[in-house]
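Sorry, explain these tokens?

___
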Amino acid sequence: MRLADLAKVIRSKNAGPFELTFDVLFDSEEAYVRVVDSGRLRADHFAAIYGIAPGDVLSVVEFAPALAIKITIRRALGSGDLGETDVYGAQQHAPLLDVEIP
């Protein structure tokens, strides 16, 4: 099953000019636990999805009371830098939509 089929919200946004944050929110504990237990959003897997070094994944926070996962990464280019294509970081979540969750 795809992450997009399990999550209620998948979004990205700036976390300051040099970081991006991704929020994955669920409306059921079952879906949340399935994704967490799969390990597909751990730092190493997330880095592979985005083609970045694992060290550029700054944090992965699984917050069960909110049925949410928050991942923060370093931006390759600062927000608004020459060559940067998404000033607000709002279009960076797309690769997560098709992540397969066993």
The chain has one domain: 3-97. DSSP finds four helices and four strands in the chain. The first helix runs from residue 3 to 6. Residues 3-97 form a domain with the Alpha-Beta Plaits fold (CATH 3.30.70).
